Amino acid sequence: MKCVRCKGKGIIYLKRHNAAFCQDCFLYYYNNQVKKNIKKHKMFDKKDKVLVVISGGKDSMALWHILAKEGYNVTGMYINLGIGEYSDKSQQVVENFAQKNNLEVIIKDIKKEYGLDIYKLSKLLKRSTCSICGSIKRYLFNKIAYDGGFSAVATGHNLDDEAATLLGNVLSWEEGYLARQSPVLESTHPKLVKKVKPLYTLTERENLFYVLINKIEFLHDECPHAVGARSILYKEVLNSLEEESPGTKQRFITSFLEKGRKHFQDVYEKVELKECSICGQVTTTDVCSFCRFVRLSNQNTEN
Ligand code: Q46
Ligand code: ZN
Fold it and tell me: pLDDT averaged over the chain?
C-alpha cells in the first residue's frame, strides 16, 4: 500500500477515495479538507472570533486543535452537563488540553451555575435526558457566542454524524430539520449566531487518526446516554452500505446539499421567531425552554 501523494509507505487507506496516505500526506489531506470546507461555505476567516464547542471526544478535540494550529481566533467552550463520571473526565481532558496549548476555554457547569439537573428535568417533563440536554446545550452555545461577540459557533460534527442525521430525517421526512441540515446555518435573527461544521466531510475514523497522530488527549468513552440511540443504528446501516459501495455517505450528504435541501427552504422560512420575555434569547414561544427549565428547577428546590 503506497501513499498516493508521495509514494512512500501508506498507513491509512481511505476506501471512498481509493487512496492510501502516509502520516504526513494524511495530515496534508486532512488540513486541505478543513480549509476547503471553511472556504467553500464561507464559514469564517482569520479575523472572526470563533467559539468551538468541545465535548472532550475525538472530533471536537481534532477541530479545536486544527483551527488553533491554522491560526484561527478560537475559544473553546465546554459545558458540564452533570453526567456523572463522564462529565468529570471530559472536563479534565478539555482543561488539560487548554492549559497545555495555552488556549482559551469557557467552562459552564449547568448544575452549579443554573441549578439545572437533566435527570430531574427529564422526570418532571417526561422527556428524554437527551432532549433536555440538547435544548440546554443549544441555548448555551448561542447565548455564550452572542454575549461574547463571536461570529460563529463551530462543532465537530463529522461525515458519519451528518449522514446518520440525514438518514433519520429522511426516514420520517422531517421537513423542518431537512431545511436546516447544512454545514453552515446562517443567522436568521440578530441574536442568533451562525453555526458551522468544518469537519463535515471527514469521517470518525479520519478524526481518530488525526488525534492519534498528533498525540491529542481525548475521552474514549461516549456519553452513557448515547448507547442505544437511533443515530447509532443509522450509522451501522450506513457503514454496511459504505462497505459494499464506498463513497455512499459522502454522496448522500453532498447530493442532498446540492440537489435536495433547496426543496425544503420554504418550510424553514415559515418559523416565527420571538425573543424570550425573561432572557431575551431567540425562541418560538413566549418563554424559552431554558428559562422554563430554570423556573421549574427553582420551584422544585423551593418545594
Ligand atoms: S444529548 Fe444525550 Fe448527547 Fe446529552 S445526554 Fe449525552 S448523548 S451528551 S450528544
Ligand atoms: Zn429565556
Answer: 95
For the domain 34-269, what is the CATH code? 3.40.50.620
**Where are the domains positioned within the chain?**
34-269
Burial class of residue 273 (count of CB atoms within 10 Å of its CB; 0-12, 13-18, 19+): exposed
Q: Is 132 in the pocket of ligand 1 (CB under 6 A)?
A: no
pLDDT digits (tens, 9 = 90+) for 187-204: 999 999 999 999 999 999
Q: Which three cell numbers stand for residue 192?
A: 442568533
Burial of 18 from C-beta contacts in 10 A (0-12 / 13-18 / 19+) = exposed
When computed from its CA atoms, the radius of gyration of the chain, rounded to whole angstroms, is 20
Give residue 18 CA to ligand 2 midpoint distance, Å: 49
Å from CA of 152 to ligand 1 middle: 22
Binding site per annotation, positions: 3, 6, 22, 25, 276, 279, 288, 291
Q: How far apart are CA 119 and CA 130, in angstroms?
A: 10
Mutate to test the pocket of ligand 1, among 53, 80, 86, 129 (most ligand atoms within 8 A of CB): 129
Best residue among 83, 122, 127, 130 to mutate for probing ligand 1's pocket (most ligand atoms within 8 Å of CB) is: 130
Classify residue 52 as left (phi > 0), alpha (psi -120 to 50) or beta: beta
Q: What is the pLDDT of residues 138-167, one digit of tens each?
A: 999 999 999 999 999 999 999 999 999 999
Gap between the Cα atoms of 202 and 196, Å rounded: 14
pLDDT in the model for residue 300: 72
The CA distance from 209 to 24, in Å, is 12
